[in-house]
Amino acid sequence: MARADGRTPADLRPITIERGWSSQAEGSALISFGGTKVLCTASFTNGVPRWLQGKGTGWVTAEYAMLPRATNDRNDRESVKGKIGGRTHEISRLIGRSLRAIIDLKALGENTIVLDCDVLQADGGTRTAAITGAYVALADSIEWARGRKFIGQKAQPLIDTVAAVSVGIIDGEPMLDLAYVEDVRAETDMNVVATGRGLFVEVQGTAERAPFDRRELDSLLDLALAGTNQLAEFQRAALQSADA
Amino acid sequence: MARADGRTPADLRPITIERGWSSQAEGSALISFGGTKVLCTASFTNGVPRWLQGKGTGWVTAEYAMLPRATNDRNDRESVKGKIGGRTHEISRLIGRSLRAIIDLKALGENTIVLDCDVLQADGGTRTAAITGAYVALADSIEWARGRKFIGQKAQPLIDTVAAVSVGIIDGEPMLDLAYVEDVRAETDMNVVATGRGLFVEVQGTAERAPFDRRELDSLLDLALAGTNQLAEFQRAALQSADA
Amino acid sequence: MARADGRTPADLRPITIERGWSSQAEGSALISFGGTKVLCTASFTNGVPRWLQGKGTGWVTAEYAMLPRATNDRNDRESVKGKIGGRTHEISRLIGRSLRAIIDLKALGENTIVLDCDVLQADGGTRTAAITGAYVALADSIEWARGRKFIGQKAQPLIDTVAAVSVGIIDGEPMLDLAYVEDVRAETDMNVVATGRGLFVEVQGTAERAPFDRRELDSLLDLALAGTNQLAEFQRAALQSADA
Amino acid sequence: MARADGRTPADLRPITIERGWSSQAEGSALISFGGTKVLCTASFTNGVPRWLQGKGTGWVTAEYAMLPRATNDRNDRESVKGKIGGRTHEISRLIGRSLRAIIDLKALGENTIVLDCDVLQADGGTRTAAITGAYVALADSIEWARGRKFIGQKAQPLIDTVAAVSVGIIDGEPMLDLAYVEDVRAETDMNVVATGRGLFVEVQGTAERAPFDRRELDSLLDLALAGTNQLAEFQRAALQSADA
Amino acid sequence: MARADGRTPADLRPITIERGWSSQAEGSALISFGGTKVLCTASFTNGVPRWLQGKGTGWVTAEYAMLPRATNDRNDRESVKGKIGGRTHEISRLIGRSLRAIIDLKALGENTIVLDCDVLQADGGTRTAAITGAYVALADSIEWARGRKFIGQKAQPLIDTVAAVSVGIIDGEPMLDLAYVEDVRAETDMNVVATGRGLFVEVQGTAERAPFDRRELDSLLDLALAGTNQLAEFQRAALQSADA
Amino acid sequence: MARADGRTPADLRPITIERGWSSQAEGSALISFGGTKVLCTASFTNGVPRWLQGKGTGWVTAEYAMLPRATNDRNDRESVKGKIGGRTHEISRLIGRSLRAIIDLKALGENTIVLDCDVLQADGGTRTAAITGAYVALADSIEWARGRKFIGQKAQPLIDTVAAVSVGIIDGEPMLDLAYVEDVRAETDMNVVATGRGLFVEVQGTAERAPFDRRELDSLLDLALAGTNQLAEFQRAALQSADA
Which domain covers residue E140, as residue numbers? Predict the structure, then answer.
C-alpha cells in the first residue's frame, strides 16, 4: 500500500541533520524528519544543581516546546497562558529520560547539560525527531567540554547512542514514521526509543481508536527497531562530518 | 525468589474495592493495591463542553492527584505551588485515555463524566490502582444516569472493561504489581493497561537503569496480562455486590 | 423542634475518630461529623524554616483543602485553577492559629509540624471537624517525636486540647453542629474554637441573613461550649484507645 | 492606664472621613483612623454578572489591598508575586459580607457595586477603617445611581448603616481601636462589625497569645459596640456635609 | 488654539508636590499633574541584592501600578489577574532607568532604594508624573540615609535632577502635558525624560495615528525641554520647603 | 574608526531575508542581521476578536520571544517561569504598534493577523530584525488572503512599508546596527522604526550610561534613517523574488 507521500510502510521520511546550527550553544543540531524541523541545543554548565552537589555525579535534563505557528493552526504560547500543558511536560520528561539512559552520569562528573528541543515546524513525530537530534547536540557538547577539560580525556560519559521513531497501525497496516496526516488516522500509535545496540529505552504504545493485540504489538516493535537502526546511521554520519 | 512482603513474582498485592464509598458522587470506589489507596469518584453531568455541543457525542476525562502526605515524605501541594507537575499531568492524561478506550462516546450521548482519582496513601502503582478503580466508578455512574434516563435503556456506552497493573524487572527477574520499595529498585518499569478481553490499551515501558531487550519485554507483557485478568475479576465482583 | 436528621437543637451529629488511619504520617485521624469526613495528617520534621532557625522555638502550621467531588456538585481543583481560593486560605489560617493556641512552641523545640486536613466528603462543618481531628493527629505526632527523642521526655508542648464546632440560628432557634442543609438556611452562623478547659480560641460569627443581637450571641456561645466539651471527650477517648 | 498616644482604653483614635476624594468613582472616601489611611471607592455598574442575570437582584463585592510601602517595612506587591495572600483574601471577603449585610439586594435591582479599599498608610485597624469608609462610598454611589435613574426614587437598598472597630486585651485590659504597636502586643484581638442600630454583623475574636474567657469576651463586645456607635456618627456627619 | 481646560499649547497643567506625604517611607511625595495624582514612596534599605554584594555599588529600582478605580472605568487588579500587564512592566522599567541615569551608584554605596509609584487618580501623563515625583522621594530618602550615616557626609549620589513630561501632536499642533482627553486624540505621542541640566535621558515617540516627520519631532522636543525645565523648578521648590 | 567586525560606523551588518521559510504559515521570513536570526510568521484568520466584531475593521498584533539558548548563556523559559518578563512584553507591543502604523485596518476588513517573531539566535538588534522581518511575513499573508478572497482585489491594507534599526553612541561616536558586544558598551542606545517613505513610527532613545544632548540625538536620527532606507531595499528585493 502506497502512502500519501509515496513511501512504503517501512520507509522513514527524508532525514537531515544540520549539526552545529547554533553558534551560541556547546552542541546543536537542526534535524528534519520530512516536514518536521526541530532545533536541538545542548547547554553545558560546569557544576550541578544544589541537590546533587558533592555526589560526584552529573545531570542531564531536557525541555521541549513548539513555536506557536509550527503547526497548521496557530496555538497560544504557553508563556502567555502562564502554564505548561500536559503534553509539553510529558515530552520534555521523555526526552530527558531517553538521554539519561545512555549517559553514565558518574563519568560526566559534576557537570550539567540541558537539552532544548524547539519545534520550528511540526508535521508528526516531533518528539522522536527531538530525541534523535538531541543526541547529536549532546554528543557534541561532551566533546566541547572535553576540549575545555571539564571532562577528562579518558572519561566515557556516552555508553551508547539513542534514537526514536514513531510507528502506528493505519487501516490495519503497521507503518513507520508517521506524518501528521497519518498520525491522526492511526488506530494505534507507538513511540519507540532505542539504543544504537538495539535495546529498548522507552516503549509507549497507545490505542487511539481500538485496543491492539499481541501480534500487532510485535509487528510494530519490529518496524520501529528497523527505523531506529537507520536513524543511528544518520547520527553517526552527522557526527563524523567535519566539525561544525 | 521471595519478595519483601512474601509474594511470588507473579502475585498481585491484596486488592480491595470499596464500591460506593462516597455518598455524593454518581459513582465511586475506594480501591487498595496493598498499601496504595485511591479514592475514585465519577461526576456525571448532563451536557458536554461547548466545543462538543451538537455533535451527539459525550466526553470522559480524568484528573489524578495525591494528598500531600500520601507518601513517606510530605510533598508540597500543587495548589500552593500554583502549578501542576509533569507527573500529575501525565497520569491524568493516561487515565482519561484508558477509560475512553472502552467507552462508546456516541452511545454515551451528550453527557460528561469526570473521574477524580485522589491518592490517599501511596505505596507504588498509584496510577494502575487509579485506572482500575476509576472503571468501577465509571460503570456505576453510567447506571446511575440510566436510572435517571440521561442514557437510554438500551444504550451500551461501555464496550469492554479496563484495568491496569505495573510490572518490572528487579535483579533480572520480572515481577508483577511493584510496591514502592520494589519500584525504586527496578531496572525496567512498565505500566500496562488492558481490557477485560485481553487487548492492550496502553503499554508504557521505561528503562530506569538499563535498556531492555525483546525477550525481557515479552516476559513483562505476559506477566502484566495475567495481572489485568485477575483485576478484571475483582472489578466484576465489586460491581456484582449489592448496590452501594 | 426536630431537625431533618432527628436531632434536637443541642445535639452533635454522630462523631467518629479513626486514629492512625494513615500508615505514612507521624500522626493521623480520619474524623467524621455525620456525613463530613476529613483526613487529618501530621507531618513532623526535625528542624524549622530558615526564618526561625536558632531561636529555640518550633513551628506548627496547617493546610486545608477539599477533594473536587467532596461536595454535591463537583468543584474545579485549585491546582488546576492555579490559585487557592479565599475560603481555603482563610480556613487553613484558622486551623493553624487554633492549634498554635494550645502549643508551647518553646517546649516543642526546633521542630516543625504540618497538619494537612483534606476533606474527603463535605456535609457542613468541615473546618470544625478539621480542627478537632487535627488535634488528635498533632498529639500523636508529638508522642511519635518523643519516642524518637526529637522532643525530651519531660517536655510538655501541649498545654491544653482544642476542638471546634459550628452553631447557628435557624428560624430563630440556636442549633449546634449544622449539617449542610441547615447551614445554607441559617440566619447567623458561628464557628467556635475552644480548649478543653473551656476557654475561647476563636469566635467567628457572621450574619448570613440578618444581623444578630447580644442575646442571640450569648445563646450561641452557650451551645458551642457545650459542644466543644463533648468533642473533647471524643478526642480523649480516641487518644486513649490502643495505639494505632 | 494611659496608652502610648495618650488615649484612655475606651477612646477611638482621631477619625476623619474625606468624602468624594476621587473625581472618577461614583462614590469615594479617604478615611483615617489615626495613622491608618484607606482610600475607598465605589464603582457602580448597571447590570450584574452573568450568574445573576434575570434574577432581579443586584451584587455588592469588595477588594482590599495594601500599597507596598503602606507599612513600616516594604512588602512585595501581590501582583509581582503573582498571587493574593490569605490575609488579603480574608479581609476582602469580610468587607464584602459586611456591606451585603446592610444592603437589600432586591431593592438594588440588577446593578453591581464594587468597593475597592486600598490602604495608603497602615497603622493598625486597616480592615475596620476600610469597612467604615466603604459604607460612605457605597451610600454615595447609590445616590449617584438614583440620580441617573438606575435605581428608583423610592427604592431603599440601604437597610441600615455599618461600621467596624477593633478591640483587644493588652496586659489584661480591654482597649478600643488598637494602633499597630498595641495590636502586636495584644493577648486577644477582636474585630467587630456592627450596624447603626447596634446589631452584630461579624464578630471575629482570636486568641493571639492566650485563650480568653467569657467575661473577657463580654467586656470586649461592650467596648466595641460603643466604638461602632461613635463611628456611625462620623459616617452620618460625612454624608450630611455638602456634596463632594 | 485654546485647549479644553483653557491652557495654551505650551502650558503645563497645575502642578503640586506634597512632599513627605507618607509617615512610613524614607522619602515620599504625592504629586499632581492636573487630575493625575501619584503617590511616590522611596524605601531605603542598607544592603544590596545578592547578585550585587561586594561590588561596592548600590541599586535603585522602581515599581509602577494603578489603583483599580484610578481611571474612569474600573480595571481588574493585576494581583487578582495573577499577572502584570505589559504596560505596567514597561512603565516600571522606564521609571527605574530614568532615576538610575542621575544616580551615581558607586557613591550610593551598598544600599538599595525602591521607588513605588502608585497612581491614585489617572488623567493622562501618569508615567511622567511618576518620574517627576519619584525624584523628590528619592532625594529625600538619600538625605534620610545620610542622617543615619548609611551614606557618607560628602558622598554625592545624585549627579543631576530628573523630570518627565508628555508632548503630542493634536490636529497638527504640538502640545505639552496631555490630559487624558487629549492623549486619546493625539496623532503622535511622546514622553521625554530630561535632567535638570537639559540633557535627554529617554525619548519615546510613538506614531499613534500617523507617522511623523523630522520637523514635527523637533518641535515636540523643544516643547518637552521647556516643560521639564519648569518641572525641575517645582521639584526644587518642594525640596527647599521646610522638612516633611 | 573600525568596528570589531570591520564595519564602518554607518554600515549595516550582512542582511539576509529567507522569505517563505515556513510551510505552515500564511506568510513567513527567516531574517538575519549578522548573527541575529529571527523567524517571523504571519497567521491570518478570517474574523476578529469579539470586542471588534461588527466594526468593519481588522486587527494586527505581534508576539516576540527568544529561544532559551538563543543567547550566549541559557535563559530560563518564560513558559517554565509561568510569566512573561517586562522586556518581552515591551518588544511585543513595539512590534505590534510598528506594523499597525502602516496598515489600514479598515482596508484589511474583519480579518486578524498575528505576527510571531521568535529569536533563534541573538546577537544584538533582535527587536529591529523582528520588525523588519515581520513586515515581509505580513505582506505575504495579505497576498495569501487576497488569493483566497478574504481581502478584495482592490483593497490596499498596506499603506507603506516599515523597517527598524538600532543606533548608538560608543566612545562618543554614533554607530549603526549594533552587535551585542557593541550594545553593552553603548553610552546611548536608540531604536528607530521608520516607514519606506522615511517617516518616523517609533523613536526610542535611552541613555544607558550618560544623558545625551540635542546634537547627539540629531546625528543618531540621521544614521538611523539611512539604515532603514537600506533595509527597505532588502525587503523590496525579498518580496520581488520568486514566490516562496
Answer: 15-241
